[in-house]
Design goal:
The complex is a heterodimer of chains A (144) and B (175).
Chain A: H1 2-21, H2 44-54, H3 73-87, H4 92-103, H5 118-143
Helix pairs in contact in A: 2-3
Chain B: H1 2-25, E1 45-46, E2 56-57, E3 67-72, H2 77-91, E4 96-101, H3 105-115, E5 121-125, H4 129-133, E6 141-145, E7 151-156, H5 164-174
Parallel strand pairs in B: 3-4, 4-5
Antiparallel strand pairs in B: 1-2, 3-6, 6-7
The chains are: A mainly alpha (144), B alpha/beta (175).
Amino acid sequence: MSGRLSLALAAGATVATLLFCTAPAAAQPVTPPAHYANVQLADPAKEASAKALMETLRCLVCQGQSIADSDADMAADMRALVRERIARGETPASVRDWLVSRYGDYVTYDPPLSGLTWPLWLAPIALLAIGAWIARSSFRRRTR
Amino acid sequence: MKRFALWAPLAIFALLFAVVASGLFRPADKVVRSAMVGKPLPDFALPAMVPGKPGLTSASFKGGQPRLLNVFASWCVPCIAEAPHLMRLKTMGIPIDAIAIRDTTPAIAGFLRRNGDPYARIGSDTASRVQLALGSSGVPETFVVDGRGIVVKQIIGDIREDNIGEIVQAVREAR
């Protein structure tokens, strides 16, 4: 009886493993990534400027990461695009503008100053001013 | 002044609490929309993906009739789910073209055999170049393009039953 029970348990565990542990069919492109997705440019200066740009571009799939850090297929495609355009002599700013014109400011980690983003730029200055004001009044109190 | 100083920390706390609570109850919209809606399609010319069906160029969207541009792939699971809805849109007389992302001819041929083939043309985008130029951030996505080649609408994710109405309406308005 106990033998049959343990057999049933084992079978149940196997079914559970199969049900919950098998990975879903991988949704990955069937073609390999473009050459420059994971290969550096031959010119070190160009590679450095491409890398610096990639670190300030957001991966659209895994949205907390830059395309330099991300392992997503789309990030690989974007890295290849950045390297090819830099290799062709485009400036990092124009590559960034090209992507912003496709995806909006969301794609860049270096947001331009606009009607929507001005608090980002103004808030630190305002906070510093408030801090200075508080410090000044508390110092004045102490000297009295 | 003293009374203000007494209540200020509580007021600041209440403000922060409100900010955090609103983020909790209304999570941020993480969908990345294309900035190309309202703009002309980028210029592209993609080779044919399957034999017997032409490739896709941006020029073919300037024929005066609105068309759907479906971004899909054989390796994309939700693309299977939207296939019957695309077939339905086709039977309603809406022409559909497609861009296959990083795919191979046998894989796409198999996909079309299994899930139906609603496409007039299929272009092969082997390095996602045109996808990036379109501001598309994944598969599947569908663009409604008017007869002059201007993108009028983007549907992100698989087309569902309840998207059909809005697509038909967008196509009608684009005529």
